[in-house]
Amino acid sequence: MDTFPTKPKKRYFPHGLSGCALFSTTLFAIISLWGAYLIGSSRYHLGNGNMGKTLIPTLPLLKEPVVFNPDPRWSGSDPETHKLWEKEHLNGFTHSFVLDNPRDYGLEKGVPARRGGERFGISMYHQLHCLASIRMVYFNQTDNHQHRRDEDPWDMELRNHLHTDHCFDYLRQAIRCSADPTVEWSRVETNGERREIDGWGVPHTVCKDVSVFEEFIAQHQ
């Protein structure tokens, strides 16, 4: 996640990218990311395999399957929906944790913390932060920038072209990494035909209890 954003030269995403293309990519991310961030890795893994001690607690599977269905609270561009997405965006900054001995866990250096130790993040919150950032760029384009808040430096940063481009690629890799194996069937049209697969109404049995993350963050602020 972008812990120390720099002031962008351009405040909004270039209009060279069509709203249709951005919408398609965003829609794909919204449908797919639920599986990506919920199944995740049950422990904090490093590419070099040097774990040392266990860091993140094991995430247990939820007792009941999670059925993906449209949630109107997270759809559209009304003020209450924006508040929910803004929380996901800010969690990318606020949901980090401090370690006094990160090398014991095989970690490279984090961001120096004000009161000592080093600050680290969790990928799930970074992924949701990126998704919320892309959403803000999309609605600022389609709604004539009516959701901009010039006084907020974080909003200035999330509209930066390079930041949004980073989020597209980051989410692509996160979705492939988590690889939700749930088999999805087709939806039934009003005439009884089955022509498309939209992912709704399908139970996912690999979703994990992410409240463990919340507890871990609270203990290591």
UniProtKB/TrEMBL annotation:
Belongs to the ustYa family. This is Tat pathway signal sequence. Keywords: Membrane, Oxidoreductase, Transmembrane, Transmembrane helix. Pathway: Mycotoxin biosynthesis. It comes from the Eukaryota. Coiled coil: none annotated. The keyword Oxidoreductase applies. The chain crosses the membrane at residues 12-37. GO terms for molecular function: oxidoreductase activity. InterPro entries: UstYa-like. One of its GO terms (biological process) is mycotoxin biosynthetic process.
